[in-house]
Every structure is written in structure tokens, then in C-alpha cells.
Design brief:
It is built from 14 helices and 14 strands. The protein has 400 residues and is an alpha/beta fold. It starts with 8 loop residues before the first strand and ends in a 6-residue tail after the last helix.
């Protein structure tokens, strides 16, 4: 017996749910790629995406996933043999380090583990040792999708400024952009990365690199730069095709324009607040389940948790069992425990982008039904606890 018929819900941490408006925006004939609507849409997206990033700097857009953005960020700022320091809080920090090594860079890691965010004191100690300023950039991931850890960025800039260290501060915000607060210029970030498929509510395949003048100055001597990844023609194109170094991602642009319209209509502060409330609802449910079972949030400190994705540990193989039950019996797809040790069992709940209260409450209610159906020990009332978070946040006088 299965009750999975009907509209399925993809609650993985990206690609995220595509809004109907975004889907409809893509259903149109291929456009003229030389003039007219498509160049106009692209030109309109540039200032809007800069506002969403909180920057007056530059923007280069790519037909790429996040791995390509890692390469683009390094190609425009580094030369072979340069040293980068990677602050790791999960699998995607290691991924950026692997990309750096593959490009001939000297990549050093400070690993903060899978349960705690970056400690600025450890960064300060390492940079204080770097008397010759060999470290050309500090790379980190704002929200690591594998662990759900969210690191504070301003303290990292404070360390660099305190030591007068010239290293660039480069931030992967792929999982958090459009979900958690991001203010590139105010935080002192030199290079910021994001992609289309998470908080931006569009299909995978487009990536964005924002950079300031300080980072762009490195481009003068960066021998890792290649024609395709070069950010200068993309940031200041003389001809439309230079935005993409070739054919534009036509229907992706239709989708992105509509998604950005939706964010602007809602208002970015409200977008951030909505994600925070829905995340707290997820945490309340998991904490309730864990009172009588081997179930726990990966991140103990709520101040260090992402508002876009939650990683959940479950003992005895229960996470895999629950994930499969939810998908095949109830039409709810949860994220796998990406990058974790084989003997550990994790699942992840994505609550990013086009999500609302009933979607989150429905997902949590389904998970609770699965825990019961599978006989997995858990505390009762998790979905109700989530409902309490949401009702409290929305409590207001009834309308007339």
C-alpha cells in the first residue's frame, strides 16, 4: 500500500521547489538571442542581483553549477602555486579545497568538524603566523549544505583587518543566498558565490560571482585565468553574448527573472524572516522526537544552524529507512546524509526558497507518521511542536 500519489514534495536542500510562476515563465518559444526581450531581461537582472547580495561591486554570471563557481572565483584571483586557506565546516568546504588543488594551488585546511562553526580565534592564530603574507585568500562556506552549519562572516573580516592581512575573503553562499541574511559589502566579503537552484527558486544551471575592486585587481596577474571563466567580459560586456561567453541560457533567464520578481514583491527582509520561522519549526519537531528516541539535530547551537537546511542524525539506520518510507509511501523526498561517515545515519530537510507553513507542517507530519509506521522510537508531538512555533510567530488579532 502506498499513499504517494498526487503532487510530490521535493524537500531536499536543492534543487528547491519551483514556483508555478517560474515554471510558467519558461513555457514560451525560444527568443531572439541578439536583441530585444532577452538582452533586456539580462540587463535588468544585474542590478537586482547586486541588491540581493548587498553589494555595489561587480557581477559575473555563468552557465554553471557551484563547482564551476569555485573554479571561476579562483581562476580570476590566483596564480599557480598561490596559497589559500580553507575554513571547513562540512563536505562543501572540502570540495572548494579539492578544486583549488586541482588548479595547482597550495590549499591548506582548518577543519572545524561537522558540529561547530568557524572559531575566529583559530583563524587569527594561523594568520598571525603568516608573517610573509603567503596566504592569498581565505575561503569558506557560509552554510555548508551537508552539515547545516551557518558561520558568522563579519568576525572573519575583523580578524583580517585586525592583523592587516591582505588575503581576500571569499564566501560560498550557494546554500544560503535568498534564505539567510547576506550583506556582502557590509560584511567585508571580497568574492561571493551563489547559484540559481536554491533560495533563488530557479532550475539548476546558472551561477553568480560578485566581486569587488580589490578582488578584481588580482585579475591583472592571475595566471589561472582562462577565456571562459574570465569575469571581466561578463561583468562589463560590450556585446550581449559576452555575458555568457556564448549562447545565453534563454529559458533559465526567463525563470530567474520571475523568481527575482517574487523575492522583490515579498521583500528580502520578509524572505529572511520567513526562512527563520520555518527553520525553527523544523528544529522544534526534531527536538521533540529526540526526547524519547535516538534522534538529534546535527548542530546543537541554534545560533549556528542554517535557515535553509537541517541535518538530522538518527541511530540504527533509521534515517535511511525513514527517508525511503517518506518517498515511496507518502510522496515526500528528503535529502540524503551527504558526506557523512558510513556508520552514521543522517537525513537532511531542505526548507529553502518557495516554501510556506503548510508545506513544512505537511513534511513534518509525514515524517512523524513514518517514524510511527516504522516503529522508530521517538517523542510524540513533533508536528504539533512545529505548529506551535508557527502559530506563535503568526499570532495576531483576527481580521474583521
Amino acid at each position: 500500500m502506498s499513499l504517494s500519489q498526487g503532487v510530490s514534495y521535493l524537500a531536499i536542500p536543492g534543487p528547491s521547489v519551483l514556483p508555478e510562476r517560474v515554471l510558467r515563465a519558461m513555457v514560451q518559444p525560444s527568443p531572439n538571442i541578439y536583441e530585444g526581450k532577452l538582452p533586456d531581461i539580462t540587463a535588468s537582472l544585474v542590478p537586482d542581483l547586486k541588491r540581493l547580495a548587498g553589494t555595489e561591486g561587480h557581477l559575473a554570471m555563468y552557465i554553471s553549477n557551484g563547482h564551476g563557481l569555485w573554479e571561476a572565483s579562483l581562476a580570476n584571483t590566483m596564480s599557480r602555486g598561490d596559497k589559500v586557506l580553507v575554513l571547513v565546516t562540512g563536505r562543501f568546504g572540502f570540495g572548494w579545497e579539492e578544486m583549488a588543488r586541482g588548479m595547482g594551488l597550495d590549499a591548506e585546511i582548518i577543519n572545524f568538524g561537522e558540529h561547530e562553526t568557524i572559531d575566529p580565534a583559530r583563524l587569527r592564530a594561523r594568520l598571525a603566523q603568516d608573517k610573509e603574507h603567503e596566504i592569498a585568500a581565505v575561503l569558506t562556506v557560509h552554510v555548508d549544505t551537508s552539515t547545516g552549519l551557518r558561520s558568522a562572516v563579519p568576525p572573519l573580516r575583523a580578524v583580517l583587518d585586525e592583523l592587516s592581512h591582505p588575503a581576500l575573503l571569499m564566501l560560498d553562499a550557494i546554500a544560503s543566498f535568498g534564505c539567510d541574511r547576506i550583506e556582502m559589502d557590509a560584511w567585508g566579503v571580497d568574492v561571493l558565490l551563489a547559484a540559481s537552484q536554491k533560495g533563488l527558486m530557479a532550475p539548476p544551471g546558472m551561477g553568480f560571482v560578485w566581486f569587488n575592486d580589490r578582488a578584481d585587481a588580482r585579475r591583472e596577474h592571475a595566471d589561472c585565468a582562462t577565456r571562459y571563466w574570465d569575469w571581466r567580459p561578463r561583468a562589463k560586456p560590450e556585446l550581449f553574448y559576452e555575458y555568457w561567453d556564448g549562447t545565453a541560457p534563454t529559458h533559465q533567464l526567463f525563470a530567474l527573472r520571475e523568481a527575482v520578481n517574487m523575492i522583490q514583491e515579498e521583500g528580502l527582509p520578509h524572505v529572511w524572516q520567513r526562512h527563520e520561522i520555518l527553520a525553527r519549526a523544523v528544529w522544534a519537531a526534531v527536538e521533540c522526537w529526540g526526547k524519547s528516541g535516538d534522534i538529534a539535530l546535527n548542530v546543537a547551537d541554534a545560533n549556528q544552524r542554517s535557515h535553509a537546511v537541517t541535518s538530522i542524525r538518527m541511530g540504527g539506520g533509521a534515517a535511511t529507512k525513514l527517508r525511503k518510507w517518506c518517498e515511496h509511501q507518502a510522496g515526500l523526498t528528503l535529502g540524503i546524509g551527504l558526506g557523512r561517515h558510513p556508520e552514521e545515519d543522517y537525513l537532511r530537510v531542505g526548507h529553502m526558497g518557495h516554501v510556506n507553513a503548510h508545506m513544512i507542517l505537511g513534511a513534518l507530519g509525514t515524517m512523524e507518521a513514518g517514524l510511527t509506521a516504522l516503529g522508530i522510537p521517538h517523542g510524540r508531538g513533533g508536528a504539533a511542536a512545529a505548529g506551535d512555533v508557527i502559530s506563535t510567530a503568526l499570532r495576531a488579532p483576527c481580521p474583521d
